[in-house]
Amino acid sequence: MSMSTIPNGGDSMDEHVHHSSGALQQEPDQEHLAAVAELLGLFADKTRVRILSELLREELCVSDIAQHLGMTASAISHQLRILKQGRLVRSRREGKTVYYSLADSHVETIFYHALEHVME
User: Which tens digits make up the pLDDT trace of 63-75?
Assistant: First the structure.
């Protein structure tokens, strides 16, 4: 689910969340809460978090990520597939090579907020 649109209405999240105080202007429905749980679940795997950390720095192909993390290309591809299905990463093809990057700035924001939270 894109955080810029709300299912069953298409309204902006800004109309539903009060950003300055962090308080909700209206209660999220069960569909939105389930989507948040699913999104946060994508961050619950150490390998996926390590991949996202690598992609924060630069766009990379599977073999580069595998080399940086000391893992097999197959293991990295499996996790990238999950991240792509969750719309946290995107890919682009250049010849035979597929490069991966973060899907948008929301992913970077979520990652840095989580990192900041655990480092306090």
Answer: 999 999 999 999 9
Cα 32 from chain centre:
16
- Structure confidence by residue, pLDDT tens digits, 12-37: 444 444 444 556 778 889 999 999 99
Report the amino acid identity of residue 47. T
**Residue 51 DSSP SS3:** helix
Choose among 109, 110, 90, 99: nearest CA to 41.
110
Rg (CA), the chain: 16
> Where in the chain is CATH 1.10.10.10?
43-119
Structure tokens, 36: 């948040």
**For 43-119, CATH number?**
1.10.10.10
